[in-house]
Amino acid sequence: MNIRAIAALLAATVALPFGAAHATDLEVTHWWTSGGEAAAVAELAKAFNATGNKWVDGAIAGSGGTARPIMISRITGGDPMAATQFNHGRQAEELVQAGLMRDFTDLAKKEGWDKIVRPASLLKSCTFEGKIYCVPLNIHSWQWLWLSNDAFKKAGVAVPKNWDEYVAAAPALEKAGIVPLAVGGQAWQSTGLFSVLTVAIGGKEIYQKVYGDKDAKVAAGPEMAKVFKAADDARKMSKGTNVQDWNQATNMVITGKAGGQIMGDWAQGEFQLAGKKAGVDYTCLPGLGVNEIISTAGDAFYFPVLKDAAKSKAQEALASSLLDAKTQVAFNLKKGSLPVRGDVDLAAANDCMKKGLEILAKGNVVTSTDQLITQDTQKQLEDLMSQFFANTSITAEEAQKRFVAIFSKAG
Amino acid sequence: MAAHTQPGRPNQLFRNLNSKIASIPMMLTAVVIFLGGTIWTVVYSFTNSKLLPRLSFVGLEQYERLWDTPRWIVSIQNLATYGCLSLIFSLTIGFLLAALMDQKIRFENTFRTIFLYPFALSFIVTGLVWQWILNPEFGVQSVVRSLGWTSFTFDPLYNSDIVIYGILIAALWQGTGLVMCLMLAGLRGIDEDIWKAARVDGIPMWKTYLFIIIPMMRPVFVTTLVIIASGIVRIYDLVVAQTSGGPGIASDVPAKYVYDYMFFAQNLGQGFAASTMMLLAVAIIIVPWAYLEFGGRKRG
After folding, report:
1. CA A297 to chain CA mean position, Å
2. Which of A52, A236, B67, B136 is deepest in the core (most CB within 10 A)?
């Protein structure tokens, strides 16, 4: 009896892989877990499942900072997933150098990725020694100020049109018991906010010199001092936020508990999910209404090298389905991001996304910080900015000195 | 035993051969994993390894940068504050509780269970519970305010200056039960006759504890000290659960710095340098102690 049961079990384990052979399961890891993000991921899964394979969702909660170490340790530890999300830029640089990622040059040539992907910098950051190692998926930009129209109505002031008006309106908001600027406690949020201020207040050139060329002299200069002054204002305005996650902070804006938030366009997905309308319930100001420039950050998919032939084949199917025009539209509408293809029609896009598309078409873009600085520098900046925002005893001048020190050693 | 009458002593190496063979796996683990891993870490701390370990030496650069980093300094200060206070308080409170329990009170078992219970919780759970208790929106502060003291402020986790004490409270709540149990066992090990003799001599109870019982409990204190000290150096999960190092970097600890730089910043060299410093700190404390404890006894 026992032996028979064991034999049956063994037979079952052998039979299973045969049954699943034609529909290959691919595990895809990512950190899209908020409401709007999950809805967007479902679109990717739908598109991939339509190719006859199966998307196995490997969502890792807790945003990129938590997810990336897990992904990297899985890849370097010899248990790679089939595909994984990273941001455009230098996050997977060393994994590619170590030969752990799959080369997609042939597929890219066949499908002409270099013709459809715009801006070209996205495909460039996928390229290493002339070979293409990732599939750009979307464009996210950090440079957005989201304002709650309700909050300003309650405070009895007009909805501001730029950063200066916003700062001027802060006391009125505070009086009405509203936190003027919601900034979540996670370090990357204040760091991102600072880079937004650099582009908006300092301008494109200053941003490029500091983050791109790591020019310590410019970082110590009077232009950056102005940016630090603005960051000091932002710090005062953010007092009393007391939440950690970015979507909790966005939720404060949605419910009118906070006047506004400086956050990337992924916040848009949350507004959409809550049924809010751009221009009516909330206002978006790209480049803080000062310098209408956006950065082309965003997400790309990387494919670790796998031994399984069937899975490797399915990886190709996934790669081309991600760049498919239909997937691009469906995904990006839900996600609130912009498509990486310039040739798709986004008629269904809302006002804010259209503003973003316009800026993109004009070419008013800067390279994102993820592409310019290493994770190491990013972490040092995060340590500095999170301390600066939490501790008012650090003056803007002191913070700038430390900022300069970080960039004078950055690689 | 009869075999020993043979001329010539058997080789020392082959005495207790069975037990020596049985302990080979553990010896290998100790040498290869602990010692090998430690040496590997120290060696790579002198390189500029980023995401993947690479043997390109840069001398003391990582250490220079480490001691130049405000966050590392903050985390060392936090560890020092937390370590000293946690050592003093958990020993004092643990001993006091044990002494009180030793007064032949009723329901001793019940109390012992209650005091020891927090120790059964992981640091993550402890951290979350205390994060809620200390949260100004719905914790202690809001309860006291709803009782009428509307200006009462108690938000240690949101105040950079005192956040480490908020963590200390949680750690003490979790850990003193164990210290109490160890102390209680020590107290029970003291001969009744000593108490009787002290009573005959008319020595007051507090003096008996202070000058007779505590010196007699030296081994128990040493054991407890080692347990508490090792808990202090490796503190990490409690901080992550309660504040994740915040606000800002105000409640950072060395272990968290190591983790963040190794995995988030993709800078292994920096993480290795920081963990080597942690090892050095432990060695500075442990080596003289071990020397006094074991080296001294052999001579005497």
Report:
1. 6
2. B136
Strand-pairing partners, residue A338, are: A139
> Which fold is adopted by the domain A144-295+366-409?
D-Maltodextrin-Binding Protein; domain 2 (3.40.190)
Which of A373, A383, A392 to probe the B interface (max B CBs under 10 A)? Answer: A383
* pLDDT score for A168: 94
Are the Cβ atoms of B267 and A95 closer than 8 angstroms? no
Longest dimension (CA), chain B: 90
Which CATH number characterizes residue B229's domain?
1.10.3720.10
Q: Which domain holds residue B194?
A: 62-299
The fold adopted by the segment(s) A25-140+297-361 is D-Maltodextrin-Binding Protein; domain 2 (3.40.190)
Name the pLDDT band for B136 (thresholds 50, 70, 90).
confident
Q: Are A43 and A32 in contact (CB under 8 A)?
A: no
In a domain, B134, yes or no: yes
Q: Chain B window 42-81: which residues touch A at a Cβ cutoff of 8 Å? A: 50-52, 65, 68-71
Residues in chain A predicted with pLDDT less than 70, given as ranges, are 1-22, 411
Cβ atoms of residues B62 and B267 within 8 Å: no
Whether the predicted pLDDT of B12 surpasses 80: no
ipTM, two decimals, is 0.75
Q: How far apart are CA A220 and CA A226, in angstroms?
A: 11
The residue of chain B with its CA nearest to that of A191 is B248
Tell me if B19 is assigned to some domain: no
Q: Is B56 within a domain?
A: no
Specify the pLDDT at position A1. Answer: 44
Q: How far apart are CA B255 and CA B250, in angstroms?
A: 14
| Chain A neighbors of B70, CB-CB under 8 A | 383, 387, 402
Query: What pLDDT, on the 0 to 100 scale, is given for residue A18?
Result: 42
| CA-based nearest residue in chain A for residue B263 | A69
Lowest mean pLDDT among A51-65, A376-390, B80-94, B161-175: A51-65
Dist. CA B175–CA B262, nearest whole Å: 29
Query: Which residues in chain A (48-87) have CB-CB distances under 8 A to chain B?
Result: 65, 68-69, 72-73, 76
Q: Which of B236, B264, B233, B279 is nearest to B45 (CA)?
A: B279
Chain A hits for B72, Cβ within 8 Å: none
> How many other CB atoms are there within 10 angstroms of residue B66's CB atom?
22
Cα torsion through A46, A47, A53, A57, rounded to 10: -50
Interface test with A, best of B253, B266, B268, B272 (most A CBs within 10 A): B266
Residues of chain B positioned with their CB less than 8 A from the CB of A405: 68
